Amino acid sequence: MSVSNVKLSECENFLAIDTETTGLNRYTDRIITCAVVNLTPEGIDSYTVKVNPGVPIHPKASEVNGFTDESVKAFGPQEDLLPVLEAIEAAWEAGTPLVGHNVTFDLRFLSSVSVRLRQRPLEVTGPVLDTMVLARMAGMRKATLSAVAAAVQIDQFKPHTAEEDALVSLQILSRLRPSFGEETLGALYTAQKVFDRGFRSGWADDEGEWPL
Predict the structure, then answer these.
(1) Bridge pairing between strands 31-40 and 43-50
(2) Which of the ends of the chain has fewer CB neighbours closer than 10 A, N or C?
(3) d(Cα 129, Cα 14) in Å, to the nearest integer?
């Protein structure tokens, strides 16, 4: 059976990601941290990659994520993000949905990384579940991560740390799952594209509001 015909309620494995960046423009800004959280029936496995962006961090970004030009100097090279790209592609190859809150923001930055390091974009070849879009589809007017977490009664988390945000996106998906559980991954992908302009274009515009 094609993964597009699998119901959300039947999925057992999910891969969540979240990034913190130097700004909003995927062409001139860079990733600072990227968290990967793998959820399986056996439990959760997570890690965070920290890289020196090599470009100045915008003041607004520092205000949001707490990183400064000085604090990232000891982080690793951009090449350390290659395993993240490979993990995402392996998940899609296995039919595992990729989860994130405003995940098009993360994907377009990771695609730019892929272009710089592998001379090709990150092609979406598997299911994607954007908890920001799903929350709006469920009727939530304010869909920032903090607002949605509060709406579904997830308390006491520290926003704007990549791993924590990725974990919370999985919790939000779990809370929203009863509303969409009988939908197939293919139907949800199509619905997200219809509902959200950024999702519809594949990659959101390079300027806009911070995703959290």
Answers:
(1) antiparallel
(2) N
(3) 10
Enumerate the domain spans of the chain.
12-200
d(CA 148, CA 135): 7
pLDDT the model gives residue 2: 77
End-to-end CA distance of the chain: 36
* Cα–Cα distances in angstroms (integers) from residue 95 to residues 41, 125, 166, in the given order: 15, 9, 19
For the domain spanning 12-200, the CATH number is: 3.30.420.10
The secondary structure of 170-193 as a DSSP string is HHHHHHHHHHHTTSBHHHHHHHHH
Render pLDDT for 78-89 as a digit per residue (tens, 0 to 9).
Answer: 999 999 999 999
Decide if pLDDT at 130 tops 80.
yes
Torsional sign, CA 72, 164, 105, 186:
positive
Give ∠ CA 154-170-114 in degrees, rounded to 5: 135
Global pTM value: 0.92
